Structures are given as structure tokens and as C-alpha cells.
Amino acid sequence: MAAVQETIEQVRLIDVDQYKYGFETLVDTEKAPKGLSEDIIRFISAKKNEPDWMLQWRLDAYARWLTMQAPDWARVAYPPIDYQDLYYYAAPKKGGNGPKSLDEVDPEILKTYEKLGIPLREQEILAGVERPEGEPRKIAVDAVFDSVSVATTFKEELKAAGVIFMPISEALHEHPNLVKKYLGTVVPTTDNYFATLNSAVFSDGSFVYIPKGVRCPMELSTYFRINEKNTGQFERTLIIADEGSYVSYLEGCTAPMRDENQLHAAVVELVAMDDAEIKYSTVQNWYPGDAEGKGGIYNFVTKRGDCRGRNSKISWTQVETGSAITWKYPSCILRGDNSSGEFYSIAISNGRQQVDSGTKMIHLGKNTSSRIISKGISAGRSQNTYRGLVSAHRKATGARNFTNCDSLLIGDECGAHTVPYIETRNPLAQFEHEATTSKISEDMLFYAMQRGLSQEEAVALVVNGFVRDVLQQLPMEFAVEAQKLISISLEGSVG
Amino acid sequence: MTPLLEIEDLHAEIEGGRKILDGLSLTVNPGEVHAIMGPNGAGKSTLSYVLSGKPGYVITGGSIRLAGVELSELTPDARAALGLFLAFQYPLEIPGVSTMAFLHAAVNAQKKKRGEQEMTSPELLKRVREIGKSLDITAEMLRRPLNVGFSGGEKKRNETLQMLLLEPKLCVLDETDSGLDIDALKVVSAGVNALRAPERSMVVITHYQRLLDYIVPDVVHVLAAGRIVHTGGKELALELEATGYAQFQNEAA
Amino acid sequence: MAAAVHLMKTPAELALAETFAAAADRLPGTPDIAAGRAAAFAQFSARGLPHRRVEAWRYTDLRTLMRDAAPLAAPPDAAAKARAGGKGALFAAVAARRLYVVNGAFVPGLSDLSPEPGLAILSMAAALAQGDPLVAGHLGQVVPSDDAVLALNTALMGDGVVIHVAKGTALARPIHIVHVADLAAPAALFVRSLLVAEEEASVSLIETHEGPADIAYQVNGALEIVAGDGARVSRVKVTAEGSAAQHLASLSARVGAEAAFSEAGFVLGGALVRNQLAIRLDGADTVAHVCGASLLSGRQHADTTLVMEHAAPRCESREAFRAVLDGAARDVFQGRIAVRQAAQKTDARMMSRALLLSDTAEANAKPELEIFADDVQCGHGCTAGALDANQKFYLMARGIPATEAEALLIEAFVGEVVDQIEDETVRDALMGAIRAFLLARR
């Protein structure tokens, strides 16, 4: 990958897209040497002062990865990735690796989050939105900058409620038994090419444990920022909701605009025990590359939730607007009887973006239910594919699924594709799937424009109507954010 | 005189869940028309389903006898052959099954089970046309798949046609007036009244008194919290229309 | 990248290579055809039998399911021909022109070859041997494909039927090709047919496939159809092979402008059946209806894989499929509606439904939309489940016993597809076959 240093302004000149988060933060960074080897893995592990078992776990994954091949079934195309031409560890020198307070964090980094609108000071709240009661809503944030967590807020307040929320590197020291018990139990190290790579080199990410019967007193969130060039981000998130607990977790991502493609291969594992519920929301806004398809993030992510307990529930909501290539299928394993899984997705592609995303709902337990609502919007010269699996195993008596995927095409150079897999091995499972693909309605656009909206506003209006069912699933702050993002993503898509 | 329908201390629940009928007793003699009224959620529809043997409803105690025969262990078709007819509140749409083919199958399955002579197609067609005429059911409607694309009124008329054709001993009418305008209500009621006979009984389940202006009952019961809490003559219906069910709900609780 | 994985040759692949080596010289065809056979076999050989990692064969792992390859069938003897005369009885009530293909060989003596203006029928073997320009011009060209099973057919095709319907000709009667396997031991049949309906021609084709029970014979059939502008072409296919048979069939159809095309496939018999349909709407304003149903029991495995390609503007297509599954049967439905960039104003709807009647049945569906044009209305629906309990209860509440109620509902379920066939006698015959399936269930 070329290492041309571009200033933000220069990038803007060649870029017709309206990516608002493409600036770069200039901080002193400590990096591992370029490339991937056992030594690099030892380096990462040593940096984090990990226990031996963790290093061995990584090395086993690496050995496995060397025998694997990148998957080729998705409808995406990209040149082969040179895994030796990447940095696998990059951390700000000042305040990296578990700062004790915000004062220890590099002011440049604090400024970065400020610019991104992420509140790292606990008195702050996301701008503009107030709760009905007039009480500001608290959101705890774990801020991950390249390979390390730079700040985690509201730790004390959460601790009082019994909730553990900290970088996974820290959890390895403070709660080694919990991490050891659950890590890799939902996404095994052998799962797939990118998950196995992540298992070998993962740097940081969030660890959440909600104890029995606890309703997490605030939204938890992690904000991922890739800053360094030629650096891959490999975060690992692990959330455990013990019996009868509830947590809502939000995730956001951005990166500077760069000419080279950057790799993001994360793994997220969720475990919900009896009667527990996890709500996981993502607004993914990695740099998508410019209009000609230069640069952008390769977002190859494995996300999976295990409804391990009876009556447990896992709900995924995602708004995908960024990345050059998206390859992700947040899934639910419905193991516990009466457990349920949900997947709500908005995937918007423009320019030369390629999206291959969807979900898997694996019905193993009795009376399990799942619901999939997917809204794909393709514009420009992008390709947008929904790929989803719904399966009922022999014992999944009474399993229910309803799937609805709608695609909207804006312009005649893009593609929208729907590839569902529906597998039933139980006569008392009831699966229903429906999908449509259509053009953005000219009548609706005309109606809105006749009432005075510009064409772009009219498109945004119609699109927002199209995705409403999914937006409603997001926490309010995120919904507002997502709505803005949708309008921005589609700028320049008509006319 | 043997009662036609005899329900004794009936307890029933939805499979794996809620208890709905809680010690319901009811006796209907031949020739009588009984109305069962009650607030929403009292168990009115459940009673009709339990009587007809709908899967998913479990009898946990008590007994139901039709002309002396215990029904609880019988399949729905066996109960139908014994002369039990349920006019559904929401008649099912069955795409692909033509109304005539369905009527033919139903009539002859019952006759066969009772050891009677089966009807030939022309006989049946003639009979269906006769009844259809009285109910404003056109030949075109009979050609359509069962209830598919029928309006609410058409569906109820189709239910009545089936009832007239099958000549049951006991008719259970579940909220037959729901979804009917006044004209359709008159047509359906006339059909039902035509069936009134000394050896035939009816159980009319309804939330509103309106239907009972047209199908006049001999006895009115109030069903609340899963059992009969009050019984009276036809004037009770008018009283309920004026005062509502609140007093009986308290009684039940 | 997956192609880089080298697999050991299976006994079936090795046997097929031997068969081809031994038979290549005596298979019919000009030198050009022979070269085409060799190229096709090389193509097959490079890839081997398709397996579950080949996306189009995801649910039908032929590498595992096809344990061995049977030797090529010998031409039928007089007795076999005589027996074949009574076959195709399912459509006895349809006044059709009947053509017989016995053990993969077209039998003119048995077939109704009475002349009709605008209609030409000849044997595929003869056409290959003579270098018939119609065949040479279309073979493998109708809808190009790199499918291994079709390549195998091109390499080993023995005989079949070539039908040409001249411009503006409306055939008086349907053509019924009766395919009969009359075998006492396992053998392989490679049948290739071609139907060319010129502009404004009208033709209705019926194909039935049947054979002996308990003999593991293997059929690899391919039919290519070219429908010109304004042509009306329909095909009904009934796969009722013997209980141990494997039946792999490829339909390639290219349809011109303002034409009407319909295809209906019914799977009633065979241990393993794969019907792959590649239909390309090449001209504007064409209407296509594709439907099918599989009625399976025991350990039957049936796979219907359809690609409906809209390559021209303003075409309409409707796809409707049903599967009724009893015992440990397994059904696969893969249906892709592909809309090319030029195919603006496409209107395409697909519906597939599976009914599972037993605890051990299995249904797999993959209904795909692949859309490259923006001004389109496309959709698909898919359901899988048991019979509707409320509907069954309604019927039983009217006195209809459980098994009869189920039969009525299943008949209605499949009937929705059968109803789409225009010819009433064909519909009646199919409903009869469905009732027979239901009777056998009791």
C-alpha cells in the first residue's frame, strides 16, 4: 500500500464524498514492527503484560490461521491483502495502556474525541438530546484509539452497581477467571479466517459483565478510532449478561481519510444467560474511500451472540454507512428454550462501496423466535448484498422466524442483492421470508419537491421513511445521529 | 328428558399456560336456545373451542356430554359427526380448496361416520343451491376457494350455509354478529331461526345484545372469569345492555 | 481461492473418465462435435463433481451423493421398445404427439412422426453425426454455462430429440416426449434435446421420465430451448424415475421479445433429482411463468435450482414453487432472479413454500435477488412449516377426519401451482398424480 502523506484539505479536493470524520490526529505513537509473526504476537502480549495462557491462546490461533484461506463466497472484490505490510500494534505514547485519569491522556486525543462528539468527561452528554424527564442521560464510554483503550468513563458509578466495564486488556488482569471462562466460547478461535487472525493479534476492546439481576444503570458504549496509517485494528469485545440482567451497548467507529485501504477485523462475543437481555447497537462510519474507490476501511467483522439461557434475548441493530468493504453478519445462536434474537439493519452504500452483510439466526432450542428486518440502500456505483441464514435444527420445535429485507436502488449503476438461506429440519418450525427490491419512488420525490424540498432533501425524506422501522430500534441519541448520517451518506447520489 | 348438552364443572386452560375456564357448568335441553354473554376475556371463545376440541386447549377437569356422549376425548371431526357445529367468529380462509369440494367432503365424512347414505355430487349441488338462495350466496361465491376474498358478511353467510346443510343437533354460534351490518345480520338470523326445531339446541355466544333481538333466546347466562355467574330469561340481555358487566365481574372476583 | 483446493478423484470421477476414454470414439458427431466433447470433458475433469463448497450445489453435494458412475446404457432391444409403448400413461388423456426415448435413444418406430406443416423432428444422434446446422448453431450456446453436470452431458450425450417449429407455426397438438429407462442393471443415460421455436411459433412440450424401481440407474439430461420473438413455448416436465435412480437435468432456455414462456416441473420419483433451470429473457416485453412442485417421501432428495435472468427491458416473470415433504425427504430450492442493467422496468416475483409433514424431513431454500437495474419491481417470498393447524381444525370441526383434512390442504397447497398450467387435461392428470401421492401416505 502506498504511503503517501495527504493533508486533509488535499484529500477533500479529490473527494466528492462528505466524510466528516476524516481528519488525522498527530500524536506520538509506539508501534510494533511491521508484519506478522510469532514474535509480533509475543510483542503484543508482552505490551499488555498478559498471562501465559493468553499468549498461548494467541499463538495457537496464529498457527491455525497460517493453514487457512480467506473466504471467497461473499459478493465483494478486493486485491489480496499483504498481511506482512501492516502494523498490528499502534498506541499513543502518552497515556496509552490504561491511563488512570483523563489528565494522563494526550490532549490531542481528547481533542479528537471532542471533534467527533464523543463525551469523555463524565459531566458531558451527547449534544442536543434530552430525556423526556429533562434528566441528561448518562452514557459510559470506552474510547479505543488504534490498538489501545485511552479512556473509560463512569467506571466508579458502574462498579457501585456491580457492572464491570473496562478495556479487555485490563479485565485480563482484574477478572482473569471471567475472561478465561467466556473468551472464545461464542466465536471459537477456529471460526473463520478473520476471527482467527483477530484471536492471534487482538489488541483491545471492551469487556462487560452484568451480574445476576442487574439492570445496567446507563448505556455502555465503545468508540473505535483508527488513526495510524497502515495499521489494522483488531478489537475484541466480550459482553456477558448474567441471569436476569439487562444491558444496552452502543458502538461507533470512524477513521481518517487515507489513500490506502486499512483492515479492521474485530470479534464481538455476547453471552446472555437465563432471562438476560443484550441490546447491541452499531453506527459504523469507517472511512468509505473516495468516489473512485481509492482508500477506505476493509471491515471484516465477526459478531455473534449466544442466547445460552432460557428466555434470553439478543438484539442487534446496525446502521452501516462507512467502509470500502463491509463483510459482517451479526448472528444469534438461539440455544436456550424460548430465547429470541433480533437483527435490524440499515446498510447504505454509495460511491464504490461494497457491502455484504446480514445475519444468521440459528434455532437450536424449543420455541425460539427471531426477527430480521434489513433495509439496504444502494447508490452511486456501489454493490449492496444482504446475506442471511435462518436455520431450525431437529430439536427446535416451535421455532419462529420472520424476515423482511427491502432494497432500494438510487441510480442505475449500482446493484442490490438478496441472498437468504432458509433451512428447516423441524416440521413445527415456522419460517417466513419476504424481500423486495425497488426504485426510489418518483411519485414520492415529486410530492415532496412540490412541497418545497430540494431533491436531496426529498431523497433523504423518502429514505428515512424507508428505514424507519430500523431507526426506531436505536437508542434515541443514536437514532438522531444515524438519521443525519443517512442524509450525508446519500449526498451526491441523485441528479 | 336427557339434556342435549351437559357441561359439568369444566376447567380448561391454554396449553402450557393460562387457566381460562374455571368450574363452568351449563345444561341445555333439546329445543332450547341459550345465550352466553360476558365481558371480553371472560372465556366465551374458549368455551366454543373447548366444546369443539380445538388443539391447544386442555381440559383439566369436569365433563362435557352431548346427548349423553362424553366429548372430552374425541377429535373435532368425531364431535362434528355427533352433531356439534361451531359457527366460527373468524371463519378461516383456505386458499386452493374450493367451497363446493369442501362441503362435499364435510357432508359425506359425517354421513359416513354415522352410517348414513352419502350424498352424490348432483344431490349436494342441488341442496347447496337451495340453501344458498335463501342466504344470497351466489354460484360464483361457491366456486371460489373457501372464504378466500369473502367479505366479513359473506363469510358469516357461508358459515350459516354450512350449518343449514349439515343439520347439526347443537349449534354453537361464536360472536356471529361481529363484522355484520344490519342487513347481513337479518339474513344470517333468518337462516339460524329456520333451523330452530324441538330436537335442536343452540348456544349463542355474544358480547352485545343486538343479535338477541333477532335470535331470541330462552335462557341468558353471564360468563365471567371462566364460569357462569348469573342466569336469567331473555330480559337479562336488555338489562346487561343498560348496566354493563361490571357488577358480575365483581361477583366473579 | 477455493478452486486452489485439490481434491482426490472419487471412484465416480475415475469411472466417468474411463467411460469417456472408452466411448469418445464411438459417440455420435462430426470432428467439431468430438472436439467439443473433449473440451467439455476436460472442463468437467478440471473441476470434478460439484460439492457443497460450490455455491450452486451447496445443498446437493454430488461428490458425496454420487458414489459411483454406471456404465453407458446399451441401445434398447425390441422387447424394451415394445414395453415402452405403454409408458407416459399419466398424460394418456392428453391428445399429444408422442415421441419415445428409451434408454437414452430416440425410437422413431414407436414415435408419432406423422407430418405436420412447419414441424421437423429428428434424432439428436443423427443431427450430431450429420453436423446438422441447427444443432451445431445452438448446442451449448443457448445459455452459456460452466456447470460441471451440463459439461458432462455435452461430453457424453448419446441421443435425444431435435424439434424445429417454423416461423408462425402453431402446433395442433402438444408434443409429449416419453423418456423410459428399461434396465435390469445400473446404467447411465446421457440425453440431449433441442427445441427451436422460431418467431411467432407456438409449441407446448410435455416430458415424462420413468424407469424401474430399485435399480440405481443414472440419467443426465439436458434440454435447450430457443424461443424466438413473439413465440409461445411451454413445457411441463414430470420426473417420476424409479426409487433408486439419480436424475440430473439441465434446462437452458433463451426467450426473445414479446414472447410467452412457461415451464412447470413436478418431481414425483427418483432417489436423487436435480432440476437446474437457466432461463434468459433476451428480448423486451416478454412474460415468463415458471413453477414446480416436489412431492417427496422416504429418503428422496430433490433439488430445483433456477436462474431467471432478465436481460431485456419490461419483462415480467412469476416463479412459484412448492415442496411437500414426508419421511426423511430433503428438498432444496434455489431460485435467483437476476436483473441485468439493461432490464429496466422488470417485474419479477418469486414464491417458494415448503410443507414438512414429518419430524425428519428437511427443507432448504435460497431465494436470491440479484439486481443491477434501478427501475424494477422485484420480490420473493419463502415459507417453511407444517400444515396450518387452524385450517386443519376448521375442516375437522366440519366433520372431516384428520388424514382427509390434511389431504385436502396438501392438495390445495400444490394445486396453487398446478392451476397455473393452461391445459386442463394436463392439470387434471397432475392432480391425479398428487392424489396418488397422498393416498400412498395414508
From TrEMBL, chain A:
Biological processes, Gene Ontology terms: iron-sulfur cluster assembly
Q: What sequence ranges are listed for the domain SUF system FeS cluster assembly SufBD N-terminal?
A: 159-216
Pfam families named in the record: SUFBD_core, SufBD_N
Give the InterPro entries listed for this entry.
Answer: Fe-S_cluster_assembly_SufBD (IPR055346), SUF_FeS_clus_asmbl_SufB (IPR010231), SUF_FeS_clus_asmbl_SufBD_core (IPR000825), SUF_FeS_clus_asmbl_SufBD_sf (IPR037284), SufBD_N (IPR045595)
User: Where in the numbering of this chain does the SUF system FeS cluster assembly SufBD core domain appear?
Assistant: 224-466
Q: Which domain of life is it from?
A: Bacteria
Sequence intervals crossing the membrane: none
- Record family assignment: Belongs to the iron-sulfur cluster assembly SufBD family.
Q: Which NCBIfam families match?
A: PRK11814.1, sufB
User: What is this protein's record name?
Assistant: Fe-S cluster assembly protein SufB
Tell me which species this is from.
Answer: Xanthobacter tagetidis
Source lineage: Bacteria, Pseudomonadati, Pseudomonadota, Alphaproteobacteria, Hyphomicrobiales
TrEMBL record, chain B:
Per the UniProt entry, the signal peptide is: none
**Does the keyword Chloroplast belong to this entry?**
no
Q: Where is the ABC transporter domain?
A: 5-250
The alphabetical list of record keywords is: ATP-binding, Nucleotide-binding
| An example molecular function term from Gene Ontology annotations | ATP hydrolysis activity
- PROSITE patterns associated with the record: ABC_TRANSPORTER_2 (PS50893)
Q: Which SUPFAM superfamilies match?
A: P-loop containing nucleoside triphosphate hydrolases
Is Cell membrane tagged as a keyword?
A: no
Q: Which family does it belong to?
A: Belongs to the ABC transporter superfamily. Ycf16 family.
Query: Which named protein is this?
Result: Fe-S cluster assembly ATPase SufC
Q: What organism is recorded for this protein?
A: Xanthobacter tagetidis
Automatic annotation (TrEMBL), chain C:
Q: Which InterPro entries match?
A: Fe-S_cluster_assembly_SufBD, SUF_FeS_clus_asmbl_SufBD_core, SUF_FeS_clus_asmbl_SufBD_sf, SUF_FeS_clus_asmbl_SufD, SufBD_N
Q: Which residues form the SUF system FeS cluster assembly SufBD core domain?
A: 187-413
Q: Which residues form a coiled coil?
A: none
Which Pfam families is this protein grouped with? SUFBD_core (PF01458), SufBD_N (PF19295)
Reading the lineage from the top rank, the first entry is Bacteria
Residue ranges occupied by any SUF system FeS cluster assembly SufBD N-terminal domain in the UniProt entry: 33-177
One of its GO biological process terms is: iron-sulfur cluster assembly
The entry sums up its family as follows: Belongs to the iron-sulfur cluster assembly SufBD family.
NCBIfam families assigned: sufD
Name recorded for this polypeptide: Fe-S cluster assembly protein SufD
Q: What is the lineage of its organism?
A: Bacteria, Pseudomonadati, Pseudomonadota, Alphaproteobacteria, Hyphomicrobiales
